[in-house]
Amino acid sequence: MGAGPAGLLLSHLLARAGVESVVLERRSREYVEQRVRAGVLEHSTAALLDACGVGGRMRREGLVHHGIELRFAGARHRVPLTELAGGRSIVVYGQQEVVKDLIDARLAAGGRIEFDTEAVGIEGWEGTGGATPAVHFVDAAGRAGTLSCDVVCGCDGAHGASRAAVAGRARVFSHRHPFAWLGILAEAPPATEELIYCRHDRGFSLYSMRSPTLSRLYLQVEPGTPLEDWPDERIWDELAARLHVEGWEMSVGPIVERSVTDMQSVVVEPMRFGSLFLAGDAAHVVPPTGAKGMNLAVADVRLLAEALVPLLQAGDGSLADEYSARCLRRVWRAQELSTWMTMMLHPLTGEDFNGRLQLARLDHLVHSEGASRWLAENYVDLTGGAGLVTGA
User: Is 292 one of the catalytic residues?
Assistant: First the structure.
């Protein structure tokens, strides 16, 4: 359930192993292909897309980054990611582009994606009394139907039918952060070759990009801030004030998309309930500061595909039994990294003491090779290739 990166990639991985699947998506194809979300791919995420045959356009059009910039106290500091992380790098490539590539690959291979089809309920996933899973849905014409299956994979986000099905059975850990992000997509050539994370007394800002002609920028604002409070001129003026350093100029252009997103952390435990498996935002939400959301979803379904193939083809449920624990170990590490970055870079209104602590932490980070290496290794690839990286 869900035709985001998690559901589509899982369907693709299963098909390559000879397992049939159906993807149900409540939105239209046009909608999911235009939905602007994350844009930073970890080293292992990009490698997996390459390995399963959907990384061609990513490699042609994606922007490979070997570092990030931290700005604070009016100065610029570069963290050389690739140098510190064993030669690994990140790729800036929009989530909607990953979705387009996966949809094209699934349809070209004869895969079944049912757009404009909303899953409204699941039954039989508990596995009691010999029941088998069934997903009830409503299609674009308002017709109700039922899809019988062996397992159900909930990749339908925090408000989908899969999360609703386990309400009262799952343990949900959550934290709401005291700020939000105003994000814009602008037709302006990026004025930087690498992402800029900026801590300023006026608030956090992030300068990212989606292509050589599109910039993606963010401003820290109050939760629930109305978009009408932020006309174009105010957005650009505030970005210029927060990002200002001597000798650097920001590109300005028409704003083609804008939104305000409250920031929260959520983890659902466990991630498996009988024949129902959760993945992606259905199981966890992280603050976007650490750029881990889509990467966690991809990591989930890589493990889920590894677990489902032997379960469905040979009746071997050993990896399926380990799925939740294997995923959650990485999920909590991503929460740690994302929360640490968030609280270090977002000043709290009226908290001068906290502000001084933030500057001290940032100063330590950029002047300590050990601290910089910890950030680089976890930012580029949270698992560090051979295992989770220990904290700083």
Answer: yes
